[in-house]
Amino acid sequence: MSSSPNRIVGGIFGAVYLLVGLLGFAVTGGVGFIATKGGLLLGLFAVNPLHNIVHLLIGAALLIAAFSGVRAAKAANGTVGFVYLLVGIVGFFIADTAANILALNTADHVLHLASALVLIVVSLAADRAVSASPTRMAPSPAP
After folding, report:
1. What gap in Å lies between CA 71 and CA 11, rounded to an integer?
2. Which of the residues 5, 73, 88, 137 could staple to 112 if both were Cys, CB 3.0 to 4.6 A apart?
3. Cα→Cα distances 48→15, 52, 65, 136, 142, Å
4. Rounded Cα gap, residues 13 and 43, in angstroms
């Protein structure tokens, strides 16, 4: 695992997002499941129970992919990165509307965009030989 940047980054981000998802429940008591205003995690990031569950799912996906192999980690990092890029951008437009079912605030948008940047760059730039080379088969024994 230590030889692949995608596996390392996916594992770290996965563990952090799992932890954030769990910690989020400590500040969302009394907050509606899809409330547009949430409790503040670390006094900065708005979360509601749905947002916590999303963090748990993303964290689990990144962690599972990191332990599954380079190709899976690379795919998960790229996918989650592009989703976070979309969420980070769209979040600015829905923050004060009923569509903000994840209780996103400006700190969330910045963090999602930063996560997206790291995940996308690592996915596209690291472990390039893995996606460029076809699956190699073991050589057949000589007759």
Report:
1. 14
2. 88
3. 20, 6, 26, 46, 62
4. 21
Instruction: Give the tokens for residue 42.
Output: 């670390």
Task: Tell me what pLDDT residue 129 has.
Answer: 73
CB of 123 within 8 A of CB of 6? Answer: yes
Nearest of 11, 45, 2, 12 to residue 26 by alpha carbon: 45
Helix (H, G, I), strand (E, B) or coil at 58: helix
What is the pTM for the complete model shown?
A: 0.85
- Angle at the Cα of 3 from the Cα atoms of 5 and 85, rounded to 5 degrees: 10
Phi/psi at 30 (nearest 5 deg)? 85, -5
- Please report which residue ranges of 25-127 form alpha helices under DSSP H: 49-68, 70-94, 106-125
Task: Give the list of residues 6+ apart from residue 3 with CB closer than 8 angstroms, or none.
Answer: none
Query: What totals of helices (H) and strands (E) does the chain contain, helices first?
Result: 5, 2
Tell which wins on pLDDT, 129 or 101: 101
CA 52 to CA 102: how far, in whole Å? 9
**Backbone φ and ψ of 3, nearest 5°:** -90, -5
Taking the C-alpha atoms of residue 90 and residue 104, their distance in angstroms, rounded to an integer, is: 10
